[in-house]
Each structure stands twice: as structure tokens, then as C-alpha cells.
Protein: ABC transporter ATP-binding protein
Amino acid sequence: MLKLQNVNKTFFPNSVNERVALSNIDLELGNGDFVTVIGSNGAGKSTVLNTIAGKVSPDTGIVDIAGRNVTRMKDYKRATYVGRVFQDPMAGTAPDLTIEQNMALAERRGMRRGLASGITKAKRTRFADELQVLELGLENRLSAKVGLLSGGQRQALSLLMATFSQPKILLLDEHTAALDPERARLVTDLTEKVVAEQELTTLMVTHNMGQALEVGNRLIMMHEGRIILDVSGTEKSSMTVEDLLAQFTNIKNATVSDRTLLQ
Ligand SMILES: Nc1ncnc2c1ncn2[C@@H]1O[C@H](COP(=O)(O)OP(=O)(O)OP(=O)(O)O)[C@@H](O)[C@H]1O
Structure:
């Protein structure tokens, strides 16, 4: 469903600000794979997501979504294939528009302009049905401005909207990080439910190692632009947070000793 082949990205090459963000990334996700992505700051996690979404154009390599080479396809054209939820609850929704207006926009994602139709009664009923799944009572607040919702409610709505047009790939960029533990739990549970129901192929970046182990069927760890750990199935489910921390420590030590060797 998703294939990254030998993807490289360096920001500001050949300058003092040069940053190697992605280095020979090869990654293949099957239909319905739910992959959690961890790694230290600057490891390249967001750049992987941005490359898939088309926000970042790779220097070399191929991005293939559902058998289509989208490497040079603009982000707005890819929007039909890719749903995304960001860390900031304010990012995925328009605060001055109502819940139903936001949902109508999400529904039209990736469509050509000029095909707009009003929010019909049938549509309203469908939106209400969709919202009921969240169990937050939002189905009774269709005409409320989204700016009035709490962060957790907005993230739940963002998630629903991101999956509305049944994308091929769902990208979650630390989408529970800004929420309090209770709301983070709610949005995590909801994520698992929506992903399972729609069999969505999903990449979820998180700094929460417990969450990375608990959620999904596969986990990758990134470091300095590379994928340095890729576990799934029982190997993943038998891992503990301590195991992951030990991996981090090993890498950091290895990196330090590599540098020492190179000096
Ligand atoms: N638009 C950009 N312009 C310049 N450098 C960038 C840009 N985006 C990312 N980088 C650099 O690329 C590297 C990888 O960044 P990225 O944001 O992908 O890391 P990350 O793993 O998501 O980190 P974090 O956990 O801190 O969000 C870093 O060195 C970063 O400074």
C-alpha cells in the first residue's frame, strides 16, 4: 500500500546549515499495517511523514502509494490518498466554521473546485451518524463553532475528518501529545477503532514509548535519518519500554564511539 524506496533528503545542502533528514529510507507497508514511529528529536520522523504527504520533496528515491508513483505529485493532489492529524488540535480544523461545515470541507478534500453543494438534510444525518462513533455528544452540536470545542474534542473530530474520504494512508504526527492523559487515552482508543474499522494503513509518530508498543502491529525506530529498528508481531508485543530505552542508549553510545573512531 505504501512503498518508500531509497529516499534521501538533505535540507540546505552544501551549506553550514546542512541537515541530513533522511538517509536511504526503505519502508514498505502492507494494507492495514499500523506502524508506530519513535526516535529522538531530529531523527527524521516528521520528514518521513512530510515526504509521504508531499510537503517535502525527496532529493532521490520513490514514494509509491497504492501502486502509484506519487513522488512528484503535489501535496494537494495527494490529499485524496493521504489523511493526516497533527499534534496541534488547532491545525486540523477551522475554528470559525461549524462542525458540519468542517465535515463538509473534509468530505470534499481532493475534489475539484466548483463541485460544492449545500449541506443537505441527508448529509447532516450522515455527519451525525459519523460523530456518534466518537461518543462525545458532538452529533447534537452540528451547528456549533469548532473553536468552542476542547482540545480532545477537536482532535477526535480531526481524526474523523482525516479518515472521512477513506484515504489510502493515515498519518498521525504526535496527535495525542498535546492532550491531558485522559483525553490522550480517548483519542488513542478512537484511533485504534477507526484504523481497525476502515483497515487503514497507518503511520503514527509518538514520543510515548508505552503507546508505541501498545498500539499497532509494527514499530520502527529512527535515528539520524535512518530506520534502525523495525519490529512487528510477537517480537513487538513482547518488547518493553525498558527494551526500547536500552536500544536508544545503545545507539547513542554507538554513535559516540563511531564518531570517536572517525576522529
Ligand atoms: N523544513 C526544514 N528545513 C530545514 N531543516 C529541516 C526542515 N525540516 C526538518 N529539518 C531538519 O531535518 C532533521 C529531521 O527533522 P524532523 O523534524 O524530521 O525530525 P523529528 O524526528 O520529527 O524530530 P522531533 O521529534 O523533534 O519532531 C532535523 O535536523 C531538522 O532540523
Observations:
- The chain has one domain: 2-94+166-262.
- The longest strand covers residues 19-29.
- Residues 259-263 have pLDDT under 50 and may be disordered.
- Strands lie at 2-11, 19-29, 34-39, 60-65, 68-69, 82-85, 169-173, 201-205, 218-223, 226-232.
